[in-house]
Design a protein that fits this description.
Layout (H helix, E strand, L loop, with lengths): L5 E2 L8 E2 L7 E6 L4 H16 L7 E7 L5 H14 L8 H8 L2 E5 L5 H18 L5 E5 L6 H10 L16 E5 L7 H14 L5 E3 L7 H11 L13 E9 L8 H26 L8 H13 L7 H4 L2 E6 L17 E6 L11 E6 L6 E8 L10 H5 L5 E7 L3 E10 L5 E10 H5 L6 H11 L8 H21 L4 E3 L7 H9 L9
Helix pairs in contact: 1-2, 1-13, 5-6, 6-14, 8-9, 8-14, 9-14
The structure holds NADP nicotinamide-adenine-dinucleotide phosphate.
The site of NADP nicotinamide-adenine-dinucleotide phosphate has 21 residues, from helix 1.
């Protein structure tokens, strides 16, 4: 399989471009009337249509209990698109063209009869649209329905084993949404169920964070520049911080969040995927499996923390007012915030703490990784005290919002004295390239159509990250710890500040 990246030939070191256009196919969206489809999937496909990225022979088939009336379905999706495109008017002509590609099948995914009708409908679409039997099947349903949908799809002959690139046979790829299980045991079971139906190469476990341009840029920054990699290790880096902060609370999804909590919602998937990209060894090539091998090694090397809270390396928090949210138990102990000191037990990172922090209802919305370099080794500027005033270098990768990279360096303050201050070199995506990075789902849907699984999680990655997270979750539940209550709009619980203070460090301010 080819690399997911290539340079645009006429631009030298210009922007990274997608390489190949996808071939004919049907995108079969299970749960087309749901929130994710309306807010993200259909708008992403529509945008790909508007930019000419979709193949000519392409169709969308939706399945849900209420997807049957095609005109009503198109209208509903069109209205949702308008609602979710507040800053730019929807190109009506493009929508008419795109919506003509959408049809739906109404049915309960638990019932085999639904799949008989679905199979017949897909054959008709193949005839009408020239989609050659190629299927991108997206399971955007409640997670409890994933195993049934997979089994029924196989029994009805809609998914088939085999089918590989270069083969004349049609292909089938199945995208499985998060959460992929709710602990290690259930993730293993779901993997087994999926692998009874499909080969690993046809299973696309989606984590939309990996589709973000800034997350992909972690690869490019590390391995497309000669200056960073020599410094990327325990000799030069003092510690790393990864923050995923939201300003919103659970906004009506209290019942869901009670089952999930911050560890399952953010840490097990998004945060550990970003950590793996930041900490992995250089792959031998940019092939999907080479990159995934390197990421899996990092996740496997995470030091277990079976009793994290007692050791003082994990802090749990819950925002003030969480227990009054709809669907939340009055005595809920579900954490909406976590901060921890994690370690990667390998040569490169031995002794370098990775401080991880995620939470809701915080001061600002920010996803950011910062690499804090060691202090200068020898003082040339006056006395030791002056040199201690020099802040160590910090390299920040801002994943959202204001996507970009900044580097904090020491500089002489203008004047007759030798006075030293910190300045920041700042690169912002939007300013540099004149446009905002595209939506993650566009990239991921297109990659799936092209059969490029680089930005999707492999079985072992998912299981290693669950192995790390599940034992922490179990310790939390066993210990019955009360999370510390923190004020909405704050930086989180005081104990999180204390965690770093004890180590002689401090968190990067939240906005
Ligand atoms: N929403 C997000 O922002 C988001 C983000 C990340 C991951 N996800 C994941 O994406 C998946 C979908 O989430 P969502 O928020 O879109 O859920 P949702 O709004 O509840 O939508 C669920 C969809 O599944 C259909 N459905 C449910 N039961 C069905 C059945 N028995 N037979 C046929 N269709 C059925 C529903 O349609 P009918 O009721 O008409 O049948 C609806 O179209 C979940 O796994 C979720 O964890 C969502």
């Amino acid at each position: 399989m080819s690399s997911p990246f290539s340079l645009q030939a006429d631009q030298g070191a210009g922007p990274l471009m997608r390489d190949s256009a996808p071939g004919p196919c049907v995108a079969l969206l299970f749960g087309i009337t749901g929130d994710l489809s309306q807010r993200k999937l259909v708008p992403a496909l529509f945008h790909l249509e508007s930019t000419g990225a979709l193949p000519e022979n392409f169709a969308v088939v939706g399945l849900s209990r209420s997807a049957g009336d095609v005109e009503a379905l198109r209208r509903k999706l069109g209205e949702a698109l308008e609602r979710h495109s507040p800053n730019a008017p929807v190109d009506r002509a493009a929508w008419e063209r795109f919506s003509a590609r959408i049809t739906g099948v109404s049915g309960n995914l638990e019932e085999s009869e639904t799949y008989e009708r679905l199979g017949a409908h897909l054959s008709e679409v193949d005839q009408a649209r020239g989609t050659l039997g190629n299927r991108l099947i997206y399971l955007s349903t409640p997670p409890s329905a994933f195993p049934t949908a997979l089994t029924q799809l196989k029994q009805a002959g809609i998914v088939r084993h085999a089918v590989e690139a270069g083969s004349e046979l049609p292909w089938t790829r199945v995208v499985i949404e998060k959460p992929f299980g709710h602990d290690l045991a259930s993730a293993r079971t779901l993997n087994q169920q999926a692998l009874e139906v499909l080969g690993e190469e046809h299973i696309y476990r989606i984590d939309h964070y990996l589709g973000k341009e800034t997350v992909q840029n972690i690869f490019v920054m590390r391995f497309g520049n000669a200056i960073f990699e020599p410094l990327w290790n325990r000799q030069h880096i003092d510690h790393v911080q990864i923050t995923m902060a939201e300003t919103i609370g659970v906004v009506g999804r209290g019942r869901f969040y009670e089952e999930t909590g911050v560890l399952r919602d953010i840490v097990q998937n998004h945060l550990l995927q970003v950590l793996a990209l930041c900490a992995m060894e250089p792959p031998v090539s940019f092939e999907a499996d080479e990159i995934r091998n390197m990421k899996a090694q990092v996740l496997r090397s995470l030091r277990p923390m079976p009793n994290g809270s007692e050791e003082g390396s994990i802090v749990w928090g819950q925002y003030e007012g969480y227990r009054a949210e709809d669907g939340v138990a009055k005595n809920s102990k579900t954490p909406t915030f976590v901060a921890m000191r994690a370690h990667i037990d390998n040569w490169r990172w031995n002794g370098v703490p990775f401080y991880l922090r995620a939470g809701k209802a915080l001061k600002s919305r920010v996803t950011e990784v910062s690499f804090h370099f060691k202090s200068i080794p020898f003082c040339l500027f006056g006395d030791e005290q002056t040199c201690q005033m020099i802040d160590p270098n910090v390299l920040k990768l801002r994943i959202q919002p204001n996507e970009g990279i900044s580097m904090q360096i020491a500089c002489k303050v203008p004047g007759e004295d030798l006075s030293i201050g910190g300045v920041t070199m700042d690169f912002q995506y939007e300013g540099a390239f004149g446009r905002k990075p595209p939506e993650a789902y566009e990239r991921l849907l297109l990659d799936c159509m092209r059969g490029d699984a680089t930005l999707f999680a492999r079985r072992d990655e998912v299981e290693y990250s669950w192995a790390f997270s599940s034992q922490i979750q179990e310790a939390l539940e066993r210990g019955g710890n009360e999370p510390e209550v923190y004020a909405r709009g704050s930086e989180g619980p005081g104990a999180a500040r204390e965690l770093l203070r004890r180590d002689g460090r401090s968190w990067v301010n939240l906005g």
